[in-house]
């Protein structure tokens, strides 16, 4: 069975639902297909979103689904296996659902975080092993915090975390040698550096109490920030199969897009974490809004061209 629409949106996170809302209100026929695996599924609360600060992420998505449904947007559970071009249209193949045919496609497929493979991280992920200080820094303010050194941005990351607590340690872990400038900057803000590789997260009951180094030393802390590192991967497989252009990003290659999210593939846009791994929920929603407006504008231009061609043909016919 083939379902047709003006716009197909792949991914029902903040970016995808925001675009769906714009396009639904623009009276476009929109289908959203989603796998049901949001990036922030482990988080219990979401912060920094004006009017929704402290809301559970799943509640935001539930509100969004309800809102877009009011405008006739169709929500389809499933995972897109492939997107291909068929004439002027794009067709998404969804196992157990069928083909979804659309004039335009927005990919809001997000990314997969790559937390360190240390004993105890998975159990504490999103609780007191954290990724984003802007998301959770205020909630752990003034507590003893350790930053896990994982890549070249870890020194800067420790300085960012320092904004929320005066008790910050930088765990060298797998970091290369620190420069004299790095050490001076860390010392200037009382960020101590702990040498040695970390082996595991140490907990007591339901509370993180420190990290253990490979030599058995336990470094006390209440919270561990891990930041981003090589291994984080955007869900960009569909874009790559379509032949989209990519550019170097700070952590991984990213699709080349214009300010509206238009990719190098005709008729295809991208928004949210698949284009920007650092985008918070509110930013991803804004990107989805921009993409929705741009897609509707592009469709209007096509509709006008089609109408003009039809009018000229009608006038060219003999009376």
TrEMBL record:
<protein>
    <submittedName>
        <fullName>Thioredoxin reductase</fullName>
    </submittedName>
</protein>
<feature type="domain" description="FAD/NAD(P)-binding">
    <location>
        <begin position="6"/>
        <end position="288"/>
    </location>
</feature>
<dbReference type="InterPro" id="IPR036188">
    <property type="entry name" value="FAD/NAD-bd_sf"/>
</dbReference>
<dbReference type="GO" id="GO:0004791">
    <property type="term" value="F:thioredoxin-disulfide reductase (NADPH) activity"/>
</dbReference>
<dbReference type="InterPro" id="IPR023753">
    <property type="entry name" value="FAD/NAD-binding_dom"/>
</dbReference>
<keyword id="KW-0560">Oxidoreductase</keyword>
<dbReference type="InterPro" id="IPR050097">
    <property type="entry name" value="Ferredoxin-NADP_redctase_2"/>
</dbReference>
<dbReference type="Pfam" id="PF07992">
    <property type="entry name" value="Pyr_redox_2"/>
</dbReference>
<keyword id="KW-0285">Flavoprotein</keyword>
């Amino acid at each position: 069975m083939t379902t047709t629409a003006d716009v197909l949106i792949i991914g029902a996170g903040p970016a995808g639902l925001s675009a769906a809302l714009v396009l639904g209100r623009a009276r476009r026929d929109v289908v959203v297909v989603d796998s049901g695996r949001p990036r922030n599924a482990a988080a219990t609360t979401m912060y920094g979103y004006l009017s929704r600060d402290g809301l559970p992420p799943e509640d935001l998505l539930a509100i969004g689904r309800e809102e877009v449904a009011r405008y006739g947007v169709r929500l389809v559970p499933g995972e897109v296996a492939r997107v291909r071009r068929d004439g002027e249209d794009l067709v998404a193949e969804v196992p157990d659902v069928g083909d979804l045919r659309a004039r335009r496609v927005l990919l809001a497929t997000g990314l997969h975080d790559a937390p360190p493979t240390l004993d105890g991280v998975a159990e504490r992920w999103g609780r007191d092993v954290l990724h984003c200080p802007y998301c959770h820094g205020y909630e752990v303010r003034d507590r003893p915090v350790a930053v896990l050194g994982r890549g070249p941005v870890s020194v800067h990351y420790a300085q960012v975390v320092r904004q929320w607590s005066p008790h910050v340690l930088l765990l060298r872990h797998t970091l290369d040698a620190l420069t004299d400038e790095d050490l001076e900057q860390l010392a200037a803000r009382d960020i101590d550096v702990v040498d040695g590789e970390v082996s595991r997260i140490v907990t007591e009951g339901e509370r993180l109490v420190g990290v253990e180094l490979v030599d058995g030393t336990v470094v006390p802390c209440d919270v561990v920030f891990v930041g981003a590192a090589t291994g984080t991967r955007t869900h960009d497989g569909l874009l790559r199969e379509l032949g989209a252009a990519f550019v170097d990003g700070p952590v991984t290659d990213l699709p080349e897009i214009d300010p509206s999210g238009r990719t190098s593939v005709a008729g295809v846009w991208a928004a949210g974490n698949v284009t920007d791994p650092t985008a918070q929920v509110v930013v991803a929603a804004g990107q989805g809004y921009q993409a929705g407006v741009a897609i509707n504008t592009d469709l209007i231009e096509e509709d006008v061209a089609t109408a003009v061609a039809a009018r000229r043909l009608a006038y060219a016919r003999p009376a």
